[in-house]
Specification:
Number of strands of chain A: 7
Helix content of chain B: 25-40%
Strand content of chain A: 5-15%
Largest sheet of chain B: 2 strands, antiparallel
Oligomer: heterodimer
Distance between the termini of chain B: 70 Å
Low-confidence stretches of chain B: none
Order of helices and strands of chain A: HEEEEEHHEEHHHHHH
Number of helices of chain A: 9
Strand order of the largest sheet of chain B: 1-2
Shape of chain B: flat
Distance between the termini of chain A: 34 Å
Radius of gyration of chain B: 29 Å
Low-confidence stretches of chain A: 1-16, 296-300
Number of strands of chain B: 7
Largest sheet of chain A: 4 strands, antiparallel
Largest interface: A-B, 75 and 52 residues
Helix content of chain A: 55-70%
Mean pLDDT of chain B: 81
């Protein structure tokens, strides 16, 4: 939808001096823009964008409710980073098992260290949350308030400022009034319509991962440098598409089972990638040319007998997710088309 | 999860009314997520509803440009389109359509809106960084460096947007761009002398 600028009363310079920045900077989702929240004398200003700032103004007198709830996102991210660190640690030790001197492969643990630091920073930022703000015409999610600590601060500031403008609903009377309001407006409790997704990205992603698995299987039978490169590139494309599908499936009609499977498939791709790189480095360091700096790009120089474990690793992480995912996506798309066909058939 | 105010943003299940306006955070009864909800008097105000478009009664009647089935009652003073009462926006005593406001064709609207603001300082900063990263390629450095300096100077001469900010990007663009340009020139001279000195 095209952007419609919000109204502003008063001169720009005066307004600028009066703005107070609220904690929190951040975007929502994977590709959405940076957002900041500013508090004006009588309104809240949401600033979105890096190179072009767009403004959304919410009058304090129009705010009907604010809320937030914790989400498991931050915890999941910490666990994912720690799992990655553990895998990197194991992968970094692999060359030692093949006979490399610990000093030669110590630098590999730098990645482990980076992942552990990232996990620590993420954990220190505290639990994640979603912050919502309701006016008479819309419910806005504030993307800059994704952590409880910051959301709590803004919640208190907004509470005081909005109550100073509108007055307060006391703690004992709020449930009674809200219950009566729900009874008068049952639509407030009804689930809003979800965005219809045709799951094209899911289909493409699972098709790419399946293709990658098939090419890996071919490489098992006929070990060719070109085949392994193709498998790697298609697998990478599949991982990128899975990432896009994960972002696209949010707030959509994609069934929960398919959503969960897509997350698992993405995780499997990440683990498979880390393990492949670690195993590849281990083989290159210890078997190909001991003493030369390891280079993960040197997969094509790996002899077939060492490539087979890599191919098997790819198959193990691709097939169990890609096969059910592909057919679940097809079945979902078929179900989506059926009502449309039924509607055409009915005179 | 869809944005529904009176449902848990985590699991989507409706919240009980007694979660509202508590002094301490409560818990979502469904997913046990820590939750807070505060309602304000504006929620219980009677809402004024906008005018609804009337259906066109006769075939010959003018219909709304945006709603084909609705009778047109007013003409947009910006573009001349027929509008139903639903599309009619009254602004500074004029009747205009939402599209004219969006396109900035209503001078009165332009004076009272916050238009999008291009952050030249951010562009300068990014170009400065990019020019520093690519100076060794000579030509990108020669092009991006002066561009970063130009954007940096232009951003200093331009008024800021509605919210205050320090123009760190402009400083970064001017300094980074200048250094990258110099480095790119030195690099080019080095290459030139190396090639000309070769037997």
């Amino acid at each position: 939808m095209a952007y419609v600028p919000e109204r502003i009363d008063g001169d720009m310079t005066g307004g600028r001096r009066a703005y107070q920045r609220l904690p929190g900077v951040g975007g929502s989702g994977l590709w959405r823009s940076r957002t900041e929240t500013w508090l004006g004398p009588d309104h809240l200003l949401l600033v979105e964008g890096v190179y072009t700032e767009r403004y959304r103004r919410v009058d304090l007198a129009d705010i009907q409710a604010i809320s937030y709830a914790t989400t498991p996102g931050a915890l999941r991210a910490t666990w994912a980073l720690l799992t990655g660190a553990a895998l990197m640690f194991g992968g970094g030790l692999l060359p030692i098992a093949y006979g490399a001197a610990p000093g030669e492969v110590l630098w590999l643990q730098a990645f482990t260290f980076l992942l552990v630091v990232a996990a620590g920073v993420n954990a220190a930022r505290g639990p994640s949350c979603r912050f919502l703000l309701k006016t008479g015409v819309q419910t806005i999610e504030v993307p800059s308030l994704r952590r409880v600590r910051k959301a709590d601060k803004v919640y208190e500031v907004l509470l005081n400022r909005v109550e100073a403008v509108q007055g307060a609903v006391s703690t004992p009377e709020a449930p009674t009034r809200l219950s009566a309001h729900f009874a008068a407006h049952p639509e407030l409790l009804r689930t809003p319509g979800l965005r219809v997704s045709r799951a094209r990205l899911h289909l493409l992603a699972y098709a790419a991962v399946l293709t990658s698995a098939a090419v890996s299987a071919v490489d098992l039978a006929i070990p060719l440098d070109m085949v392994l490169s193709v498998a790697g590139m298609v697998g990478l494309a599949g991982a990128v598409l899975l990432l896009a599908a994960v972002a696209e499936q949010r707030d959509s009609t994609v069934p929960p089972s398919l959503r969960a499977l897509t997350w698992w498939a993405l995780g499997a791709q990440a683990v498979s990638f880390v393990l492949s790189v670690a195993a590849g480095i281990a083989i290159v360091v210890t078997q190909i040319d001991p003493g030369t700096p390891p280079d993960p790009v040197m997969f094509e120089t790996i002899p077939p007998e060492y490539r087979q474990p890599l191919d098997l690793l790819g198959l193990l992480f691709d097939l169990p997710f890609a096969l059910p995912g592909f057919f679940m996506t097809l079945s979902y798309r078929r179900k989506l088309r059926r009502p449309a066909r039924d509607a055409q058939a009915t005179p | 999860m869809p944005r529904r105010m009176f449902a848990c943003p985590n699991c989507g299940e409706p919240w009980p009314a007694d979660l509202a306006n508590r002094l301490m955070p409560g818990r979502c009864p469904s997913c046990r997520a820590e939750a807070r909800l505060h309602v304000f008097p504006a929620l219980f105000r009677s809402e004024s509803t906008g005018a609804e478009g009337e259906s066109a009664a006769l075939d010959g009647e003018s219909t709304c440009f945006y709603h084909a089935g609705k009778r047109a009652t007013v003409i947009c003073e910006g573009c001349g389109a027929f509008m139903c009462p639903l599309c009619d926006v009254e602004l500074a005593g004029r009747h205009v359509c939402p599209r004219c406001i969006e396109r900035g064709q209503v001078p009165e609207a332009r004076e009272t809106m916050i238009p999008p603001h291009t952050r030249l300082d951010q562009i300068a900063g990014s170009l400065g960084l990019l020019s520093l990263l690519t100076f060794f390629m000579c030509f990108p450095g020669i092009i991006l460096g002066p561009l970063a300096v130009g954007f940096g100077i232009a951003s200093l001469a331009r008024p800021r947007g509605p919210v205050p900010y320090v123009r760190w990007g402009a400083a970064g663009g001017i300094i980074g761009g200048s250094v990258a340009t110099l480095l790119a020139i030195v690099w080019m001279l080095f290459f030139f002398s190396a090639f000309t000195a070769a037997p």
